[in-house]
Specification:
This protein has 221 residues and is of the alpha/beta class. It has a single domain, classed as Uracil-DNA glycosylase-like domain (Uracil-DNA Glycosylase, subunit E, 3-Layer(aba) Sandwich), CATH 3.40.470. It has nine helices and six strands, in the order ααβαβααββαβαβαα. The strands form two sheets. It has a four-stranded parallel sheet with strand order 3-2-5-6. It has a two-stranded antiparallel ribbon with strand order 1-4. α7 links the parallel β5 and β6. α1 packs across α6.
Protein backbone atom coordinates (compact mmCIF):
# COMPACT_ATOMS: atom_id res chain seq x y z
CA UNK A 1 0.00 0.00 0.00
CA UNK A 2 1.45 3.31 -1.10
CA UNK A 3 0.84 6.15 1.34
CA UNK A 4 0.46 9.08 -1.02
CA UNK A 5 -0.17 12.15 1.14
CA UNK A 6 0.35 15.74 0.08
CA UNK A 7 2.88 17.93 1.88
CA UNK A 8 0.78 19.31 4.72
CA UNK A 9 -0.68 15.95 5.69
CA UNK A 10 2.66 14.17 5.27
CA UNK A 11 4.28 16.55 7.75
CA UNK A 12 1.44 16.14 10.27
CA UNK A 13 1.15 12.37 10.01
CA UNK A 14 4.69 11.17 9.29
CA UNK A 15 5.32 10.14 12.94
CA UNK A 16 2.16 8.02 12.84
CA UNK A 17 3.24 6.29 9.64
CA UNK A 18 6.40 5.04 11.34
CA UNK A 19 4.63 3.32 14.22
CA UNK A 20 4.65 -0.50 14.32
CA UNK A 21 0.85 -0.81 14.08
CA UNK A 22 0.81 1.20 10.85
CA UNK A 23 3.53 -0.92 9.28
CA UNK A 24 1.47 -4.01 10.15
CA UNK A 25 -1.61 -2.33 8.66
CA UNK A 26 0.23 -1.59 5.42
CA UNK A 27 1.21 -5.24 5.08
CA UNK A 28 -2.38 -6.36 5.75
CA UNK A 29 -3.92 -3.94 3.25
CA UNK A 30 -1.37 -4.80 0.54
CA UNK A 31 -2.15 -8.49 0.96
CA UNK A 32 -5.90 -7.85 0.85
CA UNK A 33 -5.69 -5.85 -2.37
CA UNK A 34 -3.46 -8.50 -3.92
CA UNK A 35 -5.71 -11.44 -3.03
CA UNK A 36 -9.22 -9.94 -2.95
CA UNK A 37 -11.33 -7.30 -4.60
CA UNK A 38 -11.22 -4.30 -2.25
CA UNK A 39 -12.53 -0.76 -2.26
CA UNK A 40 -11.84 2.02 -2.92
CA UNK A 41 -9.33 1.68 -5.72
CA UNK A 42 -5.87 1.51 -4.17
CA UNK A 43 -4.86 4.92 -5.49
CA UNK A 44 -7.94 6.44 -3.79
CA UNK A 45 -7.36 5.05 -0.27
CA UNK A 46 -6.07 8.44 0.91
CA UNK A 47 -8.32 10.56 -1.32
CA UNK A 48 -9.96 12.23 1.69
CA UNK A 49 -6.60 13.85 2.46
CA UNK A 50 -5.46 14.58 -1.06
CA UNK A 51 -8.75 16.19 -2.10
CA UNK A 52 -8.71 18.43 0.98
CA UNK A 53 -5.39 20.07 1.78
CA UNK A 54 -4.42 20.20 5.45
CA UNK A 55 -4.16 23.99 5.45
CA UNK A 56 -7.67 24.25 3.94
CA UNK A 57 -9.58 22.08 6.45
CA UNK A 58 -12.58 23.90 7.93
CA UNK A 59 -15.12 21.10 8.44
CA UNK A 60 -14.71 17.42 9.37
CA UNK A 61 -17.33 14.76 8.65
CA UNK A 62 -16.63 11.28 10.03
CA UNK A 63 -18.01 8.11 8.46
CA UNK A 64 -17.44 4.48 9.40
CA UNK A 65 -16.63 2.20 6.43
CA UNK A 66 -16.24 2.70 2.67
CA UNK A 67 -19.11 1.47 0.51
CA UNK A 68 -18.45 -2.17 -0.38
CA UNK A 69 -20.36 -2.41 -3.68
CA UNK A 70 -18.75 -2.25 -7.14
CA UNK A 71 -17.53 1.18 -8.25
CA UNK A 72 -19.16 3.02 -5.32
CA UNK A 73 -16.40 4.05 -2.89
CA UNK A 74 -14.07 6.84 -3.98
CA UNK A 75 -12.14 7.43 -0.75
CA UNK A 76 -14.44 10.15 0.65
CA UNK A 77 -17.02 9.21 3.28
CA UNK A 78 -20.65 9.13 2.07
CA UNK A 79 -19.43 9.96 -1.45
CA UNK A 80 -19.79 7.87 -4.62
CA UNK A 81 -18.27 8.15 -8.05
CA UNK A 82 -20.03 10.10 -10.77
CA UNK A 83 -22.79 8.10 -12.46
CA UNK A 84 -23.32 5.77 -9.48
CA UNK A 85 -26.77 5.50 -7.92
CA UNK A 86 -26.87 7.43 -4.65
CA UNK A 87 -26.89 5.14 -1.58
CA UNK A 88 -29.73 5.72 0.92
CA UNK A 89 -27.62 7.67 3.43
CA UNK A 90 -26.40 10.03 0.73
CA UNK A 91 -29.96 10.49 -0.51
CA UNK A 92 -30.98 11.60 2.98
CA UNK A 93 -27.99 13.95 3.23
CA UNK A 94 -29.03 15.62 -0.02
CA UNK A 95 -32.69 15.79 1.10
CA UNK A 96 -31.63 17.59 4.27
CA UNK A 97 -29.58 20.06 2.21
CA UNK A 98 -32.64 20.61 0.00
CA UNK A 99 -34.78 21.39 3.06
CA UNK A 100 -32.14 23.34 4.99
CA UNK A 101 -30.70 25.49 2.21
CA UNK A 102 -33.49 25.32 -0.40
CA UNK A 103 -31.04 23.86 -2.88
CA UNK A 104 -31.97 21.50 -5.74
CA UNK A 105 -31.12 17.83 -5.37
CA UNK A 106 -27.73 17.28 -7.10
CA UNK A 107 -27.19 14.85 -9.96
CA UNK A 108 -23.73 13.77 -8.82
CA UNK A 109 -23.05 11.97 -5.55
CA UNK A 110 -19.34 12.73 -5.81
CA UNK A 111 -18.54 14.95 -2.81
CA UNK A 112 -15.11 15.91 -4.06
CA UNK A 113 -16.61 19.37 -4.61
CA UNK A 114 -17.04 19.66 -0.82
CA UNK A 115 -13.54 18.35 -0.09
CA UNK A 116 -11.95 20.97 -2.33
CA UNK A 117 -13.64 23.67 -0.22
CA UNK A 118 -12.15 22.38 3.04
CA UNK A 119 -14.46 19.56 4.12
CA UNK A 120 -12.45 16.54 5.29
CA UNK A 121 -14.62 13.49 4.53
CA UNK A 122 -12.90 10.73 6.47
CA UNK A 123 -14.02 7.19 7.22
CA UNK A 124 -12.77 5.54 10.41
CA UNK A 125 -11.74 2.55 8.27
CA UNK A 126 -10.29 3.47 4.89
CA UNK A 127 -10.61 0.14 3.06
CA UNK A 128 -13.00 -2.82 2.80
CA UNK A 129 -13.34 -6.14 0.95
CA UNK A 130 -15.98 -6.31 -1.76
CA UNK A 131 -19.45 -7.11 -0.37
CA UNK A 132 -18.06 -7.64 3.16
CA UNK A 133 -18.99 -4.68 5.31
CA UNK A 134 -16.60 -4.11 8.20
CA UNK A 135 -14.07 -6.62 6.87
CA UNK A 136 -11.09 -4.29 7.47
CA UNK A 137 -12.15 -3.03 10.87
CA UNK A 138 -9.88 -3.51 13.89
CA UNK A 139 -6.77 -3.92 11.75
CA UNK A 140 -5.24 -0.55 12.60
CA UNK A 141 -7.22 1.93 10.53
CA UNK A 142 -9.21 3.16 13.52
CA UNK A 143 -6.01 3.92 15.44
CA UNK A 144 -4.72 5.88 12.46
CA UNK A 145 -7.89 7.89 11.85
CA UNK A 146 -8.33 8.58 15.57
CA UNK A 147 -4.82 10.02 15.49
CA UNK A 148 -5.82 12.20 12.53
CA UNK A 149 -8.81 13.61 14.45
CA UNK A 150 -6.70 14.16 17.57
CA UNK A 151 -3.93 15.90 15.63
CA UNK A 152 -6.42 18.14 13.84
CA UNK A 153 -7.96 19.07 17.18
CA UNK A 154 -4.55 19.85 18.66
CA UNK A 155 -3.07 21.72 15.72
CA UNK A 156 -6.03 23.85 14.58
CA UNK A 157 -8.75 26.05 16.04
CA UNK A 158 -12.33 26.76 14.99
CA UNK A 159 -13.01 23.57 13.04
CA UNK A 160 -16.60 22.37 12.70
CA UNK A 161 -16.94 18.64 13.44
CA UNK A 162 -20.16 17.04 12.19
CA UNK A 163 -20.76 13.83 14.15
CA UNK A 164 -23.62 11.81 12.67
CA UNK A 165 -24.78 8.75 14.55
CA UNK A 166 -23.51 6.86 17.58
CA UNK A 167 -20.25 5.72 16.02
CA UNK A 168 -19.16 9.23 15.03
CA UNK A 169 -20.28 10.70 18.36
CA UNK A 170 -17.78 8.44 20.14
CA UNK A 171 -15.03 10.46 18.46
CA UNK A 172 -16.02 13.47 20.56
CA UNK A 173 -13.47 12.37 23.16
CA UNK A 174 -10.70 13.20 20.70
CA UNK A 175 -11.82 16.80 20.11
CA UNK A 176 -11.06 19.82 22.26
CA UNK A 177 -14.52 21.33 22.75
CA UNK A 178 -13.02 24.63 23.88
CA UNK A 179 -11.26 25.13 20.53
CA UNK A 180 -13.75 23.67 18.06
CA UNK A 181 -17.44 23.49 17.22
CA UNK A 182 -19.20 20.10 17.43
CA UNK A 183 -22.62 19.44 15.89
CA UNK A 184 -24.26 16.06 16.54
CA UNK A 185 -27.34 14.33 15.17
CA UNK A 186 -28.56 10.89 14.17
CA UNK A 187 -27.06 8.97 11.28
CA UNK A 188 -28.50 9.74 7.82
CA UNK A 189 -29.24 6.05 7.19
CA UNK A 190 -32.95 5.24 6.60
CA UNK A 191 -33.16 3.36 9.91
CA UNK A 192 -32.16 6.45 11.88
CA UNK A 193 -33.74 9.04 9.59
CA UNK A 194 -37.13 7.31 9.62
CA UNK A 195 -37.13 7.44 13.43
CA UNK A 196 -36.86 11.20 13.26
CA UNK A 197 -33.17 11.33 14.18
CA UNK A 198 -31.81 13.02 11.03
CA UNK A 199 -34.15 15.32 9.16
CA UNK A 200 -34.34 18.89 10.39
CA UNK A 201 -30.85 18.97 11.93
CA UNK A 202 -29.89 21.98 9.76
CA UNK A 203 -26.22 21.08 10.06
CA UNK A 204 -25.38 22.64 6.71
CA UNK A 205 -26.75 26.10 7.45
CA UNK A 206 -25.42 25.92 11.03
CA UNK A 207 -21.94 25.06 9.75
CA UNK A 208 -21.99 27.98 7.36
CA UNK A 209 -23.16 30.31 10.14
CA UNK A 210 -20.16 29.26 12.26
CA UNK A 211 -17.79 29.76 9.34
CA UNK A 212 -19.30 33.16 8.60
CA UNK A 213 -18.86 34.22 12.23
CA UNK A 214 -15.19 33.26 11.96
CA UNK A 215 -14.77 35.28 8.74
CA UNK A 216 -14.36 32.02 6.85
CA UNK A 217 -15.89 31.39 3.45
CA UNK A 218 -19.06 29.23 3.79
CA UNK A 219 -19.28 25.85 2.07
CA UNK A 220 -21.22 25.64 -1.19
CA UNK A 221 -23.05 22.43 -0.29
Amino acid sequence: MNVNLDGGWAKLLSPELEKPYFKTLRTFVSSQYKNHTCYPQEEAIFAAFNCCEYDAVKVVIIGQDPYHGPNEANGLCFSVNDGIKHPPSLVNIFKEIQSDLKRPYPKSGNLERWAKQGVLLINATLTVRSNEAGSHQKKGWEQFTDAVIQKLSDSKTGLVFLLWGGFAKKKMRLIDKNKHHILTTGHPSPLSANRGCWFGNQHFSKTNAVLHDQNNKPIDW
